[in-house]
Design a protein that fits this description.
The chain is an alpha+beta fold. It has 4 helices and 2 strands. A two-stranded antiparallel ribbon has the order 1-2.
Length: 122
């Protein structure tokens, strides 16, 4: 019964799927629980969007992150994460310069790219 109502939907948590979930005819107790879960899911989605906006702003205002984002496959989230990781590592070791080796695959072969993202005196 329930499964047949969602056969034509590829993503039950997409807009149409969530709408159908919210409008399901269920026993009162189940309907209340489902409504609570759907509200919680909406709250998480809003918080996720806010965090994503904050990370995008942080990355776009940081020169090191901008440089990192020139590497294919590195977006704002990864760039901010790498920068935070390097900063923490350098504080422990007292280094003034940080280097990263980025590994990837091209047609089965490994390649490496070295990026200096922080130079002494910067």
């Amino acid at each position: 019964m329930l499964q047949s109502e969602f056969e034509d939907i590829s993503d039950i948590f997409g807009v149409e799927g969530l709408e159908r979930l919210a409008n399901l005819e269920l026993p009162h107790k189940d309907s209340v629980m489902l409504a609570m879960f759907l509200n919680e899911l909406e709250l998480y989605a809003e918080q996720h969007d806010q965090l994503e906006r904050e990370i995008n702003i942080a990355a776009s205002n940081d020169e090191d992150c901008k440089l990192l984002m020139t590497i294919p496959g590195i977006g704002p989230f990864v760039a901010v994460t790498i920068k935070a990781r390097i900063r923490r590592h350098n504080k422990v070791r007292g280094q003034e310069k940080a280097c990263i080796i980025c590994w990837g695959c091209t047609e089965g072969e490994q390649f490496r790219r070295l990026c200096v993202i922080s130079q002494p005196g910067r």
